[in-house]
Write a structure and sequence with these properties.
- This protein has about 550 residues and is α+β, with helices and mostly antiparallel strands.
- Among the domains are: about 1-205, Beta-Lactamase (2-Layer Sandwich), CATH 3.30.450; about 390-560, Histidine kinase-like ATPase, C-terminal domain (Heat Shock Protein 90, 2-Layer Sandwich).
- The chain is built from 14 helices and 18 strands.
- Strands 1, 2, 3, 4, 5 and 6 form a six-stranded antiparallel β-sheet that branches. Strands 8-7-11-10-9 form a five-stranded antiparallel β-sheet. Strands 13-15-16-18-17 form a five-stranded mixed β-sheet.
- Strand 9 and strand 10 form a beta hairpin.
- Helix 7 (about 210-260) runs parallel beside helix 8 (about 275-355) and helix 10 crosses helix 11 (about 435-450).
- The structure holds adenosine-5'-diphosphate (ADP).
- Adenosine-5'-diphosphate binds near residues 447, 483, 492, 497 and 500.
């Protein structure tokens, strides 16, 4: 405000030096020509109403010409100072004409006349005219514009000039908020501006209540603008937060599904609110993919370990079984040997009695004979389990043994067909007793056929397989029956172990088979097969000369019985 009013006043005062610089070089002035200067001054004064006087004095202060009537006398004017001649322009203090009461200030300019000692041109401004100009500046009510000179004397005042102009304006101390008590006792907010066209200071004072009134409007506007901006920011932040929360929620739900084991859980939607969220989504997807692959690998490893574990446990069971069977075999053969002699004696006595006894006791003798024969058969089985060869071994083809058994177990109503696979070369043989091997295979096949008997006829599967593995011939009988329970596995080859009803099974078939295979230096065993049923097998060493011969490609032979 002060800057604007100051610039306005400066612009106005600018006319003074412009006019002075034109006048000091004018021949009438330069020549201190009273007669020429007077009409010039009079006409100029008429054109510039703000000028109260135009005066030209010589170096002694004598008035040469003056546009003010009656001012032309021998006394130097009040503003004249001899020292100003040939020096820089000067501004006088405030002078009040006692007659008219007009306040005036004179701007004096040296005139460097070459003909005389020079002079001074004085342009006197009517300050009351400036007064009116300042009063016209639009300001809040009660505001005041004042102009003071370097001595602090008030030259102009837009309000109550008569009362304060010409007096020293001693400023009251300024408060921290920039307010100061004015000469009229009213507290105003002051702003100052140093004029450039005169050594004066222009001050604009706005009453405190006006400032507060203006500021209130400003505050309200600021509050409204800031509140609106804050609200806008809040809405944007809320929108961003809710969008991010929705995306994070999706991620969290996907993470939960992954945690629950659903690794194929894809992230819904492809767009993300921010680049960071898009990156997070991508990283998350990659992590889920990695987890999926890792789990697939782990599952595979787990399956491998489980099947290795199963195989290991099966081997352990077989070892335990072999040891137990070896002990039982020793006991059984000793028992058979010890019982055989008294039994032979009983059979011999029976034959003697049969000849000499009366006919009425003949039935009892027959009972003793039958039961003794049964006991002899059991003793023979027991001694076979105990590793005793019944007859000398010969070179035989296991496939021929299997063929023979297949023929023996020819299909009957309700009995399943046996598929026979032979993959050994006919030339490769084992050293064994044909009848004994036949008994082993027959045991296996009979048990397998009984195991599948409860299945529908079309579903029954019994398969005999002869394979030639390095130096061993392996014979397997596989069925898709219920298999053997893990608890019973350890007892399978023990004498008299049976799960069949009394009269149907003796529990000697497998134990005898065990004895036979053991006596041939082979191995016998059981494994659960891929159908969930039983696979009984035995392996016998190939005769050395045959073992040197090569293999033919696998041949599969199926023969319905
Ligand atoms: P038996 O047949 O007289 O019972 P084994 O020594 O031949 O005597 O068989 C002993 C037991 O082994 C059987 O009672 C049966 O529990 C079991 N077994 C043998 N072979 C099979 C098979 N193929 N499937 C299921 N269990 C079998």
């Amino acid at each position: 405000m002060a800057r604007t009013a100051g610039a306005y006043l400066d612009e106005y005062l600018n006319n003074i030096p412009t006019l002075a610089s034109a006048l000091v070089v004018h021949p009438a002035v330069d020549g201190l020509d009273s007669g020429a200067a007077l009409p010039l001054f009079t006409s100029l004064k008429a054109q510039h109403p703000m000028l109260a006087a135009i005066t030209l004095v010589d170096s002694s202060g004598r008035v040469i010409a003056s546009a003010v009537p009656g001012a032309s006398d021998e006394h130097p004017p009040a503003w004249f100072r001899g020292a100003t001649v040939k020096e820089s322009p000067q501004v006088s203090g405030l002078v009040t004409d006692p007659a008219s009461g007009t306040s005036m200030v004179t701007f004096s300019y040296p005139v460097r006349s070459v003909r005389r000692d020079g002079g001074v041109l004085g342009l006197t401004i009517d300050m009351t005219r400036l007064q009116g100009m300042l009063a016209a500046v639009p300001l809040p009510s009660g505001s005041v514009i004042s102009v003071t000179d370097t001595n602090g004397v008030m030259l102009l005042r837009s309000i109550e000039p008569v009362r304060y102009v010409g007096r020293a304006a001693i400023p009251a101390p300024t408060t921290s908020l920039g307010y100061r008590e004015d000469v009229d006792g009213i507290e105003r907010f002051h702003e100052e501006f140093a004029l450039t066209r005169a050594p004066w200071t222009l001050t604009v004072g706005i009453p405190r209540d006006q400032v507060l009134e203006r500021l209130r409007g400003l505050w309200i506007r600021n509050v409204v603008v800031s509140g609106g901006a804050f609200l806008g920011l809040l809405l944007v932040a809320l929108w961003l937060a809710s969008t991010m929360a929705a995306h994070l929620d999706q991620l969290q739900r996907a993470a939960q599904r992954i945690a629950d084991g659903d690794l194929v859980a894809a992230l819904p939607g492809e767009t993300a609110a921010t680049k960071e969220l898009a990156d997070l989504r991508r990283t998350f997807g990659a992590m889920a993919q990695n987890l999926k692959q890792t789990r697939a690998t782990l599952d595979k490893q787990f399956d491998q370990e489980r099947s290795m574990n199963d195989a290991l446990q099966s081997l352990q069971r077989q070892v335990v079984r072999q040891e137990r069977l070896a002990a039982v075999g020793l006991l059984a053969s000793g028992l058979a040997h010890e019982l055989n002699n008294p039994l032979q004696a009983i059979v011999g006595v029976c034959q003697l009695l049969e000849r000499s006894a009366p006919s009425e006791v003949q039935p009892e003798i027959d009972v003793v004979k039958v039961q003794s024969a049964r006991a002899v058969a059991i003793i023979r089985s027991l001694s076979r389990f105990g590793n005793h060869h019944q007859s000398a071994p010969e070179l035989i083809h296991p496939a021929e043994v299997v063929d023979d058994v297949a023929r023996l177990r020819a299909p009957e109503p309700g009995r399943p067909a046996i598929a026979v696979k032979v993959s050994s070369k006919p030339g490769r043989r084992v050293s064994a007793n044909f009848a004994e091997l036949e008994q082993v295979v027959l045991n296996f096949v009979t048990n397998a056929q009984e195991a599948v008997a409860s299945l529908p006829e079309d579903d029954r599967r019994v398969e005999v397989c002869v394979t030639d593995v390095a130096r061993w011939i392996r014979v397997e009988v596989r069925d898709n029956g219920p298999g053997v329970s893990p608890d019973d596995e350890a007892k399978l080859f023990q004498p008299f172990f049976t799960t069949k009803s009394v009269g149907k099974g003796t529990g000697l078939g497998l134990s005898v088979s065990y004895g036979i295979i053991q006596s041939h230096g082979g191995a016998i065993g059981y494994v659960r097969n891929e159908w969930g049923g039983a696979t009984f097998f035995f392996e016998l060493p190939v005769v050395e000369s045959d073992a040197m011969m090569g293999h033919d490609d696998q041949a599969v032979l199926r023969r319905p019985l």
